[in-house]
Amino acid sequence: MVRNWRPKKCRRTTRLQTNCKFGLKVFRNNYFLIAKGIIKRRRIFPASLPFPTDDLPDMLRISTNAASIAITDTYDTQGSISRIEQGGEYACMHKPSGRKRKSLRRRKRNRTISFWGRRSCEHPVVSVIIPAMNEQKTIRDVIREAWQVHESTEVIVVANGCNDRTAEIALAMGAQVLQFDQPLGHDVGRTIGAKASKGEVLLFVDADMRIKSHYLRPFVNAVLKGTDVALNSYRGPVQRRQVHPVILAKHTLNTMLKRSDLLGASLTAVPHAMSRRAADIIGISNLSIPPLAQAIAIHSNLIVSAVHHVPVGRLNRRRGKSSGQDLLQQVVIDDHLQALNWYLSHTDPRGGHNDLGRKREWAGR
Asked: Quick one: the chain helix, strand, coil %, rounded to 5?
């Protein structure tokens, strides 16, 4: 039986609350029978109730059958009686005055893809690759947004060196999880995930950045429309007196590759996407060294474009320093040096840039 059934009043509404899964709400002379989790803010309600009527309070006298429900007496702040008459599958609400209120149309839901119970497609169009290491706080939100990128999507989480529930949460969200007990190192998870992917578009994101799906779709759409490599146009804070060394390395590499139009756009930054064809030309094993992969893509005359701006500098968490040094910073700079070395070895000592006719042999070099 229902206990402590008392009307709870406020200035504009009178609401009857109960600890059961139903209640009667009076708002501006409109009456709503509420079933928690079933009906919210609606002026029509199902004809059959999902709970037994034996527990209803005495002030509600309800007659039910398989097809309809009628509430003959209800609580009213003005002492009037409202009636709910039968109306097919749904019961239409009447005002106390007797004037029939037109049933409102249901709200149109956003056309977003439901991710609950999702599983990776057998033949996906998009493969979202998410390297993760101890990211249980953010992995759920990252996967949720990944499912909404495209209607035919697979999500691959490369959980490496995790000591928390990252892999467990990813499995519960329907993602394909590649689990490694030991850490794989910086960007190696991209190669592992790409090798296991089946999609025609490879989208790379990080597990520690909550990026909404509408920021991710432009990269996928650009590849589907013909772009081979779609980069994040984020170029970093370049207006400072002392620019970060990694930002300088990105700009330097693009200039050497004769793509100064890219500014600081780089495969080092997420999100970015590429086609399956581009991944094969670059070499999936080279994806673990993003600057090298970018140099190969540009040198191979692939279509590389900065398609959308995502300010990942604000989203990227600050990492601890060892002995006052940022070890990751040095790793990224070394990756750019390796990319420059590869490019010079496949062009000439000046990287294909003009020497303006200088006779170096006369100077003995």
From this structure: 30, 20, 50
